[in-house]
Amino acid sequence: MRILSGVQSSGRLHIGNYYGAIRQFVQLQQEGDAFFFIANYHSLTTLRDAKLAETYTREAAMAYLSLGLDPKKAVLFRQSDVREVLELYWLLGTVVPVANLERATSYKDKLAKGISADFGLFAYPVLMAADILLYSPDFVPVGKDQIQHIEFARDWAVKFNLTYVPGYDPQDPEGKEKGHAPGLLKLPSARVQEDTATVPGVDGQKMSKSYGNTIDLFGDEKEIKKRVMGIKTDSTAVEAPKPTENAPLYDLLKLMLPADRFAEVDASWRAGGKGYGEYKKLLLATYLETFGPARQRYAELANDPAELERILQDGAERARAEASGLMQRLRRAVGVP
Ligand code: TYM
């Protein structure tokens, strides 16, 4: 089984990235042939500062390693180190219906906010499909917000195969039956952990860099404390039972606490008698306990940029070896020498 996924390096990583995605990456590297990358080309759709772009890319790599990804088990690499991805992006783009891109959520959201979109944002899902299809994974572990992108990748892979592979039958994509040919592009599936599909931010909306509602994984402790203490709550009195709906504090406690400890919290939350402040302190303590060791490793890695670069170069080489074989076959299929 092959697994591939990535995170954008458009800012600091937050606990939504961890629970929605990276935690699964760490488990999955034990189960199959895993590729995890840093989508630094994608980040240029929102980040226009060379120094910051490099910093966030490096930080994302440090986050991967300190949270438990092991370069001996998984291939860890920067998207931009395998330039073939841009070539596949173009080839795919020639079969992508514009109507698909017009209903891509990130593009639609931007337009709805009255912000004019650049071509890079419009074409974002095509580059993401290229990221995936270049490495022929079976599964792509992601949070819920990325499912549409993976469905697009699947649809476009079918369309590409239908266009360029004689004997390809979408009902038999692996070409198992006689007379059928396997597709050049393998069809990927999203893999979403249901209980952490959408992690809420401190304001109750989806946690996202672009909403400014994140709890960062490696941020300054004072800043984290400020964010946690600022989690949106209602005006229910201390002694009264607390509502569990639309309550990001409750949801975050559920996410972060082990089940037995959360059961106690849940009972007292429903019974009343404790103020929100106490629950916030518990959440902060849980955060520090959970991420303390990773934060420590992160600080150590920050002192060894040469080792980090060596790991990324090694990952790039392994990723490139994989990508170049497929790219040669694709060039032949479309008639590009
Ligand atoms: P990005 O960088 O926004 O997020 C990285 C991963 O974290 C998940 N995630 C969340 N999960 C649950 N709750 C949240 N609040 C939350 N916020 C983020 C995302 O679902 C994602 O799995 N387009 C991608 C990056 C990308 C990619 C790829 C992913 C580029 N190419 C190829 C997989 C395969 C993105 O912007 O994710």
Automatic annotation (TrEMBL):
Which terms does the record give in the GO molecular function aspect? ATP binding; tryptophan-tRNA ligase activity
Sorted keywords for this record are: Aminoacyl-tRNA synthetase, ATP-binding, Ligase, Nucleotide-binding, Protein biosynthesis
Tell me the GO BP annotations in alphabetical order.
Answer: tryptophanyl-tRNA aminoacylation
Q: What class of enzyme is it?
A: ligase
Q: Where is the signal peptide?
A: none
Q: Which SUPFAM superfamilies match?
A: Nucleotidylyl transferase (SSF52374)
- What reaction is this protein's catalytic activity? tRNA(Trp) + L-tryptophan + ATP = L-tryptophyl-tRNA(Trp) + AMP + diphosphate + H(+)
For this protein, the Enzyme Commission number is 6.1.1.2
Q: What's the superkingdom here?
A: Bacteria
* Protein name, UniProt field: Tryptophan--tRNA ligase
